[in-house]
Amino acid sequence: MMLGNGADLAVILMDLNDPAQARAVDAFVLGHADGLPFHRPAWLHAIEQATGNRALLLAAVGPSGRIRGILPLHHVRSRLFGAALVSTAFAVGGGILAEDDRAIAVLAAAAEGLAGERGGLSLELRGGPAPGDNWQRLDGAHVGFVRPLAVDDDAELLAVPRKHRAELRKALANPALSVEIGRDARHLRDHYHIYATSVRNLGTPVFPRRLFRAVLDQFGADADILIVREDDRPVSAVLTLYHQGRVMPYWGGGLADARRLRSNELMYYRLMTHGRARGMTLFDFGRSKAGSGQAAWKKSFGFDPLPLVYHAWSADGEQRDIDPGSARYQRRVALWKKLPLPIANFIGPFISRGLG
């Protein structure tokens, strides 16, 4: 479906269920220096399958049919939080991925038109270049953490600042702790239990269980789960994406005993070893809220914060209220922390699918 055109570019709504079109988009993402897993059809399909938020992808195409830019989106709907077109849902990155300013401009204009056609929705782009002067720039709220992997395990240990290194050494010396990496039903079960417990304790609704299965299925060998066990008991777990030389731990957490056992420290250190063995060169620790305890923890692991810039647009200037720092959101967090885990796990997926 064509959404707009100019002298040299047309904007097309791609059919991601068409294998040829999906392969063309994937090739563009994998060939672009700024491409992320969140731009890939695999991510768009996984989110749509698991949450029902429809995946849409705009492509700027030249006269020859060659893709010169893309904008992946999810149409996120929620009775609690409202609706928006998000690039991309449940991701920390996304936005426009393009070869030049002309492609950026036509994709931004097409997205604005699509938002109007779908009922006056707002637009949220989590990364990428500035779409235009009429878009709101959102910065200062989140920071990312990326650094090169060291040449070997000993160098990786020395890259961790001394105080945190001492904690990591305690975990390495604990004979009860072991690490296992896989993608089967047992790994998913243990990961979900740990992740659901961890986010409930933080006051956040857990994502649907099938989201994690969908991501593993869609990304294939580019995703796996690492579990840290104390004897036979799983205590820390993380689902990781691998993209163009980057290790990207994405959904991770630990039980209450993780702090005592330093199992989270061990988890990420062993993930660095695993990533290096896979030929990765960068460790991308993901985003954290600026000034948060999580951001401080990552910094103490030897990572420096990098500001993240997002962009937003709406016809009336209004946006969804999904800011964890808002007073209304904090009241929800306080209430959620009090819920018994079985109730939180049952209700959480119905709520979280609308957060995007």
UniProtKB/TrEMBL annotation:
Transmembrane segments: none annotated. Pfam families: Acetyltransf_6. It comes from the Bacteria. SUPFAM superfamilies: Acyl-CoA N-acyltransferases (Nat). InterPro entries: Acyl_CoA_acyltransferase, BioF2-like_GNAT_dom, PEP-CTERM_FemAB-rel, PG_Glycine_Bridge_Synth. Coiled coil: none annotated. Residues 162-299 form the BioF2-like acetyltransferase domain. This is BioF2-like acetyltransferase domain-containing protein. The lineage of its organism: Bacteria, Pseudomonadati, Pseudomonadota, Alphaproteobacteria, Sphingomonadales.
